[in-house]
């Protein structure tokens, strides 16, 4: 006989597995889009400069299309937490998929 605790544990494990799959799928989609931005960084630098006017041309050159460097520079220049900088960069990224 299977106990209730075992069934509950199985359900939690299945739900957790589904959430991990959904996260991995979403992360993969985001990474794929960022790879496209990174590959065309020279074209997107102007958009980044418009979005974050405090970033200098030197900042944008150092970033070189690296998402984490962009998050760090936004965090540094605007004095926001990493989560907020990450949210802004996600928003920036999403704006290209809507074009």
Query: What's the main sheet like?
Result: none
Individual helix count: 5
Number of domains: 1
**What is the mean predicted local confidence, pLDDT?**
80
**Percent range for β-strand residues:** under 5%
Number of strands: 0
| First-residue to last-residue Cα separation | 57 Å
Give the C-level CATH assignment.
Mainly Alpha
Helix content: over 70%
In CATH, what is the homologous superfamily?
Answer: YjbJ
Radius of gyration: 19 Å
CATH architecture: Orthogonal Bundle
- Secondary-structure-derived class: mainly alpha
Following the backbone from N to C, one meets helices and strands in this order, namely HHHHH
Task: Note the overall shape.
Answer: globular
Using the coordinates shown, work out and report the CATH topology: Protein Yjbj, Chain: A
**Which blocks of ≥5 consecutive residues have pLDDT under 50?**
20-25
Secondary structure blueprint with pairings:
Elements: H1 4-39, H2 41-51, H3 57-63, H4 67-78, H5 82-97
Provide an overview of this structure.
The chain is mainly α. Helix content is 83%, strand content 0%. The protein contains five helices and no strands. Helix 4 packs across helix 5. The chain has one domain: YjbJ (Protein Yjbj, Chain: A).
Keywords:
single chain, mainly alpha, Protein Yjbj, Chain: A, 5 helices, globular
Question: In short, what is this structure?
Answer:
The protein is mostly helical and 99 residues long. It has one domain: Orthogonal Bundle (Protein Yjbj, Chain: A).
């Amino acid at each position: 006989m299977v106990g209730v605790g075992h069934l509950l544990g199985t359900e939690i494990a299945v739900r957790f597995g589904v959430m991990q799959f959904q996260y991995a799928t979403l992360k993969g989609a985001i990474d794929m889009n960022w790879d496209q931005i990174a590959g065309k960084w020279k074209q997107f630098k102007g958009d980044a400069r418009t979005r974050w006017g405090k970033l200098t041309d030197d900042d944008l050159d150092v970033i070189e299309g690296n998402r984490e460097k962009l998050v760090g520079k936004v965090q540094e220049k605007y004095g926001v937490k990493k989560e907020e900088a990450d949210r802004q960069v996600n928003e920036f990224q999403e704006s290209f998929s809507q074009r």
